[in-house]
Amino acid sequence: EQLGTQKIILEYKGFTETFAVEVTNNIVGIELIVPNKLIYVKGEELDLTGAKLEVRYQDGSKEEVEITAEMVTGYDKDKVGIHTITVTYKGYTPTFEVTVKNEVVGIEIKSLPIKVKYIKGEMLDLTGSVLEIKYEDGSKEEMEIPEHFVVGYDTTLVGVQTLTVEYKNFR
């Protein structure tokens, strides 16, 4: 049951023959666990944090293998679009996709939230808000303003509050 080269000695009627055999535990499957980050801005290096392979062997054992930069191909930090990343490990080549977007050059609030008056203690409701994100290539993207983009709201204060929307160092 020991892996690797094993020495076999065969004895029969005074004759002895010695030969070597290779005992292996072959891989029967690999599961890819994708990295934490799958969306990048043009120019960003690939971040493989969280990326692993779960390797299953014929004896039923499993092993987790961290994915390293040397194991991957297919990423071009200067090319905008969807990239298919190939991981190569012992003859297996699972893939995953990442998206590279253009650099953000500005933001603009296109619509305020439907709700703009609150009672003390009430949580912020950004339903109906629209934030336009402008990219270096002239393209634009609209999204509802996520709460974590908003700075300055305090549920304990009464009166007019000025809120700021922040995204990628833009206000």
How would you portray this structure in words?
With 171 residues, the protein is mainly β. Helix content is 0%, strand content 45%. The strands form 5 sheets. The protein has a 4-stranded mixed beta sheet with strand order 4-9-8-7, with no helix packed on it. β5 (52-57) and β6 form a beta hairpin. The protein starts with a strand and ends in a 6-residue tail after the last strand. The mean pLDDT is 91.
Considering the chains and any ligands shown, give keywords for the structure.
171 residues, mainly beta, 4-stranded mixed beta sheet, single chain
Q: Calculate the terminal CA-CA distance, rounded to whole Å.
A: 64 Å
- H and E order: EEEEEEEEEEEEEE
Strand order of the largest sheet: 4-9-8-7
Percent of residues in β-strands? over 45%
Label the structural class.
mainly beta
Rough outline: elongated
Average residue pLDDT: 91
Number of E-state strands? 14
Radius of gyration: 28 Å
Which range best describes the helical content: under 10%, 10-25%, 25-40%, 40-55%, 55-70% or over 70%?
under 10%
> Low-confidence parts lasting 5 or more residues at pLDDT below 50?
none
Largest sheet: 4 strands, mixed
Count of separate DSSP helical elements: 0
